[in-house]
Amino acid sequence: MGSGIEYRARFAACVVICGGINRLPGFPGIAVTLAKEPRVADPYAETARLVGKTPGWIFHGDADPTVPVEESRNMKAALEAARANVRYTEYPGVGHESRDKAYREPDLVPWPLQQSSKH
Fold first, then answer.
1. If we measure between CA atoms, which residue out of 19, 15, 5, 10 comes closest to residue 110?
2. Alpha-carbon distances, residue 30 vs 24, 67, 68 (angstroms)
3. Can you list the alpha helix ranges (DSSP code H) found in 12-118?
4. For 57, which DSSP code?
5. Pick the CATH number of 2-114 from 3.40.50.1820, 3.20.20.140, 3.20.140.10, 2.40.160.20
6. Rounded to an integer, what distance in angstroms lies between the CA atom of residue 93 and that of residue 62?
7. Count of CB atoms situated within 10 Å of the CB of 31
8. How far apart are CA 47 and CA 110, in angstroms?
9. Which residue ranges of the chain lie beneath pLDDT 50?
10. Under a CB-based contact definition with an 8 Å cutoff, are residues 18 and 60 in contact?
């Protein structure tokens, strides 16, 4: 939800596929800036606070070897705790190629278009 945070006033909704906050195993240089900030105790909660009321739909495969599914589960929980408008779709047995299933979701295009940029 990185760009969704920076430009939240421009977007009516965010769609995240296999997203993550923390450094990834094998990719130590890749992480959301908040995860590297020592003053931020919980980067998921801080991300949720910054996203605010921007609706989001998160997709992840539970067998993803690249980005652990816990990253999306934790973000979903933080967004729900912040009372954000979040949808979550987890695909059983699917790896990092969950985008293939996400792109076939019948609501993937209509849902963001139904959201309002006035959050």
1. 15
2. 7, 11, 14
3. 33-36, 43-51, 69-81, 98-103, 110-114
4. E
5. 3.40.50.1820
6. 6
7. 15
8. 25
9. 1
10. yes
Residue whose tokens read 């596929």: 17
State residue 31's pLDDT score.
60
In the numeric block, the tokens 């993803």 are attached to: 64
Amino acid at 52: G
Q: Write out the two tokens for 96.
A: 């990092």
3-state secondary structure of 81: helix
- Cβ count within 10 A of residue 19: 20
Mean pLDDT over each residue of the chain, to the nearest integer: 85
Task: Give the residue carrying structure tokens 């067998």.
Answer: 63
Distant-in-sequence, close-in-space partners of 64: CB < 8 Å, separation ≥ 6: 18, 94, 95, 96, 98
